[in-house]
Design a protein that fits this description.
By secondary structure, the protein is α/β, with parallel strands linked by helices. It has a domain of 187 residues: Carbonic anhydrase (Beta-carbonic Anhydrase, Chain A, 3-Layer(aba) Sandwich), CATH 3.40.1050.10. It is built from eleven helices and five strands; from the N terminus they run αααβαβαβααααααββ. The chain has a five-stranded mixed sheet, with helices on both faces. The longest helix is centred in the middle third of the chain and has 23 residues. Bound molecules: zinc ion (ZN). The site of zinc ion has 7 residues, from helix 6.
């Protein structure tokens, strides 16, 4: 990631975070409306796709998703766009407004907790919202081909994947500490502890490789509870996505994409908007 890429990320991410904190505010100029690709002929010429009935800015989309989450949490979900007519309208194409990268946890389905319908969200789900080439390629498809203006990285409370990552991180720290104590050379012992990030990166465990750094960063910031580790992991996931994807970097730089971080709370049903 170049310096300019990082500056672009920081600028856009700051704009995204501040916009997400005030979802009801006027849309910020961070999400330019891209030129739509030629759409296939619609089966019902007078009935646009559900997504096209909404404002297509990222802020409006995020605001609508948060409103849907409020309905869901209050037990007033409307289950929009899930009828037979909508299904027929969508047979020839999709134009979702947002992509969501979230955990595979059965308690956290994005369409339900945001009270959205068919055609609204392009979702990618893995345990602990961990990323690999397939995840990145899927999100790049949503950004480049489907022109989503919003990418939401969604963590959640009591995430089993993060619990595993924390446990494996603790085991690694115990191992590394024991190695350092066994070393007679104090400088070598110091190096062993300093190389913790490399030991995480070289681990055989995909969970530790993906989420261990999040646990480590949280610990470095003296954030010890799982809730905080989950928040740090969302931030780390966004940073890694931007770092690894030129498509996402370019979409942020050209103000065609906004990224927001959020965390779903199992107890309340509400989505907590994160700012970093
Ligand atoms: Zn989870």
């Amino acid at each position: 990631m170049t310096q300019s890429d990082f500056e672009n990320f920081e600028q856009n991410f700051a704009a995204a975070s501040s916009a997400a904190e005030s979802p009801q505010s006027q849309p910020q100029p961070v999400a330019a409306t891209p030129e739509p690709e030629a759409q296939p002929e619609q089966p019902l010429q007078t009935s646009p796709l559900p997504s096209e009935l909404h404002e297509s800015t990222a802020n409006a989309t995020w605001s609508r998703m948060l409103q849907g989450n409020k309905r869901f949490a209050e037990g007033k979900a409307e289950h929009p766009w899930q009828d037979k007519e909508t299904r027929h309208m969508l047979t020839d194409g999709q134009k979702p407004d947002a992509a969501v990268l979230s955990c595979s946890d059965s308690r956290v389905p994005p369409e339900i907790i945001f009270d959205q319908g068919l055609g609204d969200l392009f979702t990618v789900r893995t345990a602990g919202q961990m990323i690999d080439d397939a995840v990145i390629a899927s999100l790049e498809y949503a950004v480049k081909k489907l022109h989503v203006s919003l990418l939401c990285v969604l963590g959640h409370g009591r995430c089993g994947a993060l619990e595993v990552a924390e446990r494996e991180f603790n085991e690694l720290v115990r191992t590394v500490t024991a190695e350092a104590e066994e070393s007679q050379d104090s400088i070598e012992a110091e190096d062993i502890m300093d190389d913790l990030d490399e030991r995480i990166a070289q681990s055989d465990s995909i969970v530790l490789r993906q989420a261990g750094i999040s646990v480590w960063q949280a610990r470095e910031a003296e954030l010890d509870c799982l809730d905080d580790i989950e928040r740090v992991h969302v931030a780390h996931t966004i940073e890694a996505l931007v770092d690894r994807s030129e498509v996402i970097q370019q979409a942020l730089a050209s103000e065609q994409l906004m990224i927001v971080g959020a965390r779903y709370q199992l107890d309340t049903g509400r989505v907590e908007v994160l700012s970093f």
